[in-house]
């Protein structure tokens, strides 16, 4: 596999890898490495980073040491190199997975000069006996892959990566090539500083992936939305990222029982299952992999058609890298993220146990993610700006914000307020502090620095801090404000910003996304939050039918179906008993007892109005693994006291009653007479029962208490009697 110096790089490329041309700036990078210079490569996923060190490694004297973070990735790379060579000894990896005999073979090949590339994990590199051995090897250069792992500001920080420079000095100094697919200017500076290569030649490819479509959706009934999306894209490969292992398992199971070929992947699985699932995805035996971020680094599947984030990632670098796994062949790549602010708050909570400096970094990275998610600016422009690249087009035509532009308004005076405030605090504070001053918040920091005495304090109090943070972001994208690299987050004015103050011009601000900070939790698509897309005409017709059915059965309407159930029907258009079972608050029993007339009415309505229904209506739910509901039903069957059941489940009584109400409202019959009889005498039971049967217009507890008298009955009494009434008459 060697080559003589008279052959051109292009010939070497063809001989060794079968390619007839270089991609982007690969050739310039390779020449720089061949000339013995330090090299920094910033190249998005799919740009051909590996070749930048693999080809020079084959051509130069000695062995290139390639430091890589993942064992699975090393194995893939080594297998790929060996596929091009007659001699397996040309590439090896050294890590904890090898037997003693295998390590011995690696060492023999290295010392004989056969091996041109040695892949090592940083942990293996730091072992004293490995350092001692590698000092005997002639090193052509060091390649540091996934170099963002060096930076605490990167999305995948690994402390052992920060020791690489010291180890290189011990093994033997040689040129370095550092490569990463994601690095902000801050991360790039951090990497170069840590590796002692601030003078390295930097090769930066564009971060723009024109074939990717970016969209952020509110996280409402996300599971149902995902099923609908996948069923509308049959046979296409996709990755769904979740933050927790538990969610990965749950979602993969839900997709599977809904007829989607999906498999889970996370670090908690045994390695054999994990590898088998990865292989099934690569071999197209599965269409979808549901994974934590443990999946994907170095996954060379070019035709991933969609990447869905069930949970928003912790940083924009993480987001960019994960979305970058879509459409690596230049074909279609849809990147859809479900977002609600509650998830960000959850991530902030997880950080509380970390070191204070780590918390500060994590918080800043999360703020950038929130800014991206809630922004109404072109997503592509926002992302590229984050990575230090300009995007000049007004619209990219392939993100939700460009396809559905938000309202614009004149914001010249608002931008001037922001710029004057930054100058007033001597350009030494972050965006949140600037927003606090403008809105007139007397936070501890504002008062400590005496910023509540500034002329600008409270100048924009009529607008909230979200508005001012959006103004800061849009001023940054327009290059009026710069975020410091060394002191990450501190804002200062650019030359353009100073010019704007001297000679203000029109500045159109975009109305940013409004996300409900308390979106209802998603729960397998069965009773997630309502959206404003309820068909009001159908809802009115369904309420009329409910009245008719209630008269026929001589029952109050709420016993048949409660309002949230009718609203969900007017949103989802169920046309069969099976689909009816997946409506909020409607279980199997209720669907069978009352569902037929409602499903028939909806079917006729859908046909008449030519409505295109959600494709995924039959979202089958996985039985609740916690088994709480099943356990409650079994305990009641055994006539256990509700107080004892609540205590055994570590619940308050009102929480237990919530669970029991949900069970009964979904159509399951429960007999609580044994408990109610000991609590409420017969006469009072009859009075409440009669009220619900004859007088109640709604299921409201407050109305019942007002009618029956708060002195005579407690809220718990009324709730128990309502459960008894609905169970006996509705189920």
Q: Could you explain the architecture of this structure?
A:
This protein is an alpha/beta fold. The protein has five domains: 196 residues, P-loop containing nucleotide triphosphate hydrolases (Rossmann fold); 191 residues, Rossmann fold (3-Layer(aba) Sandwich), CATH 3.40.50.300; 95 residues, Arc Repressor Mutant, subunit A, CATH 1.10.10.10; 74 residues, DNA polymerase, domain 1; 103 residues, Orthogonal Bundle (Arc Repressor Mutant, subunit A). Helices cover 47% and strands 11% of the residues. The protein has 34 helices and 17 strands. The protein has a seven-stranded parallel sheet with strand order 3-4-2-5-6-1-7, with helices on both faces. It has a six-stranded parallel sheet with strand order 8-13-12-9-11-10, with helices on both faces. Strands 14-17 form a two-stranded antiparallel ribbon. α5 links the parallel β3 and β4. α32 crosses α34. It is globular. The N terminus is likely disordered.
């Amino acid at each position: 596999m060697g080559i003589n110096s008279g052959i051109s790089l292009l010939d070497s490329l063809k001989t060794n890898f079968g390619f007839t041309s270089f991609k982007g700036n690969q050739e310039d990078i390779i020449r720089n490495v061949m000339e013995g210079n330090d090299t920094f490569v910033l190249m998005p996923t799919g740009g051909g980073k590996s070749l930048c060190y693999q080809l020079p490694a084959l051509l130069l004297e000695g062995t290139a040491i390639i430091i890589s973070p993942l064992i699975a990735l090393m194995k893939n790379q080594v297998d790929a190199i060996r596929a091009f060579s007659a001699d397996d000894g040309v590439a090896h990896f050294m890590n904890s997975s090898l037997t003693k005999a295998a390590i011995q073979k690696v060492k023999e090949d290295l010392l004989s000069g056969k091996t041109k590339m040695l892949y090592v994990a940083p942990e293996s590199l730091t072992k004293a006996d490995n350092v001692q051995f590698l000092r005997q090897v002639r090193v052509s250069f060091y390649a540091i892959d996934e170099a963002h792992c060096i930076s605490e500001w990167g999305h995948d920080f690994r402390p052992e990566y920060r020791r690489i420079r010291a180890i290189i000095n011990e093994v033997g100094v040689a040129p370095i090539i550092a490569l990463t697919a994601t690095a902000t200017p801050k991360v790039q500076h951090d990497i170069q500083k840590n590796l002692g290569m601030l003078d390295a030649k930097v090769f930066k490819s564009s971060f723009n992936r024109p074939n990717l479509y970016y969209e952020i959706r509110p996280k409402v009934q996300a599971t149902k939305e995902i099923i609908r999306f996948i069923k509308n894209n049959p046979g296409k490969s996709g990755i769904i990222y979740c933050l927790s292992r538990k969610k990965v398992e749950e979602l993969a199971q839900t997709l599977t029982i809904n007829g989607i070929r999906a498999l889970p992947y996370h670090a908690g699985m045994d390695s054999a299952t994990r590898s088998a699932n990865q292989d099934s995805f690569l071999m197209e035996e599965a269409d979808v992999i549901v994974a934590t971020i443990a999946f994907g680094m170095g996954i060379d599947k070019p035709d991933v058609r969609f990447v869905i984030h069930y949970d928003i990632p912790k940083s924009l670098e993480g987001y960019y890298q994960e979305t970058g796994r879509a459409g690596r062949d230049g074909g279609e790549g849809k990147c859809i993220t479900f977002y609600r602010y509650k998830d960000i708050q959850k991530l902030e909570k997880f950080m509380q146990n970390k070191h204070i400096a780590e918390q500060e970094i994590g918080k800043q990275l999360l703020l950038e993610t929130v800014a991206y998610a809630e922004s109404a600016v072109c997503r592509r422009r926002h992302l590229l700006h984050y990575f230090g690249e300009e995007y000049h087009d007004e619209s990219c035509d392939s993100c939700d914000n460009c396809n559905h532009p938000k309202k614009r308004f004149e914001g010249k005076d608002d931008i001037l307020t922001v710029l004057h405030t930054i100058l007033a605090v001597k350009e030494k504070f972050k965006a949140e502090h600037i927003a606090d001053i403008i809105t007139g918040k007397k936070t501890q920091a504002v008062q400590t620095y005496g910023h509540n005495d500034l002329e600008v304090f409270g100048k924009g109090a009529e607008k909230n801090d979200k508005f001012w943070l959006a103004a800061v972001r849009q001023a940054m994208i327009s290059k009026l404000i710069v975020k410091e690299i060394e002191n990450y987050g501190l804002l200062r004015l650019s030359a353009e910003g100073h010019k704007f103050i001297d000679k203000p011009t029109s500045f159109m601000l975009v109305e940013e996304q409004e996300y409900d900070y308390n979106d209802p939790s998603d729960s397998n698509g069965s009773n997630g939050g309502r959206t404003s897309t309820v068909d009001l005409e159908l809802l009115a017709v369904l309420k009329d039918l409910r009245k008719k059915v209630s008269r026929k059965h001589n029952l109050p309407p709420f016993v048949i179906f409660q309002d949230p159930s009718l609203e969900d029907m007017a949103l989802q258009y169920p046309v069969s008993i099976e689909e009816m079972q997946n409506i909020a608050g409607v279980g199997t029993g209720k669907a069978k007892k009352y569902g037929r007339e409602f499903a028939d009415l909806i079917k006729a309505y859908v046909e008449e109005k030519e409505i295109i229904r959600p494709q995924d209506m039959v979202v089958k739910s996985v039985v609740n693994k916690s088994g709480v509901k099943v356990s409650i039903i079994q305990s009641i069957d055994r006539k256990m006291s509700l107080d004892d059941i609540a205590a055994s489940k570590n619940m308050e009584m009102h929480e237990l009653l919530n669970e029991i109400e949900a069970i009964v409202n979904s159509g399951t019959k429960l007999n609580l007479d044994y408990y109610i009889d000991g609590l409420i005498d017969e006469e009072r039971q009859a009075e409440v029962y009669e009220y619900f049967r004859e007088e109640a217009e709604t299921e409201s507890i407050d109305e019942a208490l007002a009618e029956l008298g708060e002195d005579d009955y407690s809220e718990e009494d009324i709730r128990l009697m309502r459960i008894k009434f609905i169970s006996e008459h509705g189920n």
